[in-house]
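Hi all, posting the design record for the shared folder.

TITLE: backbone redesign
STEP: 1 of 1
STRUCTURE INPUT:
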């Protein structure tokens, strides 16, 4: 049986099956799709073997993966990403050993995903392995990480000199260990790669009982990270928790100043709730009021596309109050446009959870709030995006 749709469109649909259902569930579905027809079989087989999965931190497990890959050399060119789950403590240099043993076998490896389950990293002790960089990897995703300082993070980035995309989800900065020996300057000779796209998202609901000292360390190190990458960043995406770390006076200077002269795309997800117990909880209006100051502090003179994603609960709670927040935001953005702070601005996008039926209504309301952006032809209303399509930037209130 031949498919009714073009094979390129079928492949695009199957890509969504894997990404939407989760890694393992998506693979089960792809296995069933491989039995549909002969035209689907090669596509599904390539998707089943494009990821090497390593769930362990033992050297024996790494050796088993090495043997399995060597036994099927015909599949090596099709592997495009690797997932490493570090589950045991104390941490072993599994990622560095992966770069030494397995990465040379994977010529098409492009993305590396590491989940450490909050196991602390000790990369300073294993810098000798960094003589074997993974030159093919251009995208690195860190999930549920625990790092002690930027040097730990630089140890990972040094493994990927061709890195262009960095995604950090639920990364926690722990207190430094005074008993651990600090790295010498000779060990830190490798420079940080020129990351062009940075995506940052920390937990909103699960961070409810976050202690103040942890929040302060997260804020301080995230600001240092942005300062390190400010010259190379072209795209930046943050969620409401990271936005709070960068703008709240509870964790440092109100808003730090950067020099992101190459930044072209900025996505700010103000989806909540951003709840706290140990520190004062700031109202949503306060987050909205800081948006113009935050954008101004980035010094992104080449910014072309600016996107805002707002909390659906706040919109439904009081639409008039939310429109009042937007009018204040309009005043700040208008001042920046008129003062030539955003000379190359091409599009300002708003996600107000507008479904297709309400798209025209919200387009009209946004036009009333942002008359200058409407006159410039840069205003755009985003049609409703389902929560499952937003990944770590999902509004938890939409899933209840």
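Okay, here is what came back for every position:
SEQUENCE:
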């Amino acid at each position: 049986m031949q498919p009714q749709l073009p094979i390129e469109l079928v492949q695009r649909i199957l890509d969504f099956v894997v990404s939407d259902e989760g890694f393992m569930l998506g693979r089960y579905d792809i296995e069933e799709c491989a039995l549909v027809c002969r035209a689907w079989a090669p596509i599904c087989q390539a998707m089943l073997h494009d990821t090497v999965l390593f769930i362990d931190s033992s050297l024996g497990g790494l050796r088993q993966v090495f043997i399995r890959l060597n036994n099927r050399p015909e599949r090596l060119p099709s592997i495009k990403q690797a997932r490493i789950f570090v589950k045991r403590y104390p941490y072993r240099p599994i990622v560095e050993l992966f770069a030494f043993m397995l990465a040379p076998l994977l010529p098409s490896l492009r993305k590396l995903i590491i989940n450490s389950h909050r196991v602390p990293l000790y990369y300073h002790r294993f810098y000798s392995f960094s003589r074997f960089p993974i030159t093919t990897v251009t995208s690195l995703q860190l999930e549920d990480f625990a790092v002690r300082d930027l040097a730990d993070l630089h140890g990972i980035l040094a493994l990927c000199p061709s890195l262009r995309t960095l995604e950090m989800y639920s990364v926690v900065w722990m207190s430094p260990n005074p008993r651990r020996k600090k790295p010498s300057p000779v060990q830190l000779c490798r420079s940080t790669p020129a990351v062009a796209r940075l995506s940052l998202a920390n937990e909103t609901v699960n961070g409810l009982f976050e202690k103040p000292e942890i929040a302060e360390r997260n804020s301080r190190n995230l600001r240092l990270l942005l300062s390190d990458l400010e010259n190379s960043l072209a795209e930046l995406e943050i969620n409401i928790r990271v936005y709070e770390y960068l703008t709240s006076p509870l964790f440092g200077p109100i808003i730090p100043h950067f020099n992101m002269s190459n930044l072209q795309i900025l996505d700010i997800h103000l989806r909540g709730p951003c709840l706290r117990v140990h520190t004062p909880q700031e109202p949503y209006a306060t987050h909205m009021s800081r948006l113009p100051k935050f954008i101004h502090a980035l010094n992104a003179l080449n910014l072309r596309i600016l996107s805002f994603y707002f909390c659906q609960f706040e919109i439904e709670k009081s639409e008039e109050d939310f429109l009042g927040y937007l009018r204040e935001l309009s005043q700040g953005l208008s001042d920046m446009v008129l003062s030539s702070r955003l000379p190359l601005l091409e599009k300002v996008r708003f996600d107000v959870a507008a479904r297709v039926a309400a798209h025209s209504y919200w387009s009209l309301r946004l036009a009333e709030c942002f008359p200058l952006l409407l006159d410039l032809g840069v205003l755009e209303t985003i049609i409703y995006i389902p929560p499952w399509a937003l990944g770590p930037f999902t509004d938890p209130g939409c899933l209840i």
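COMMENT: The radius of gyration is 23 Å.
Let me know if anyone wants the other runs.
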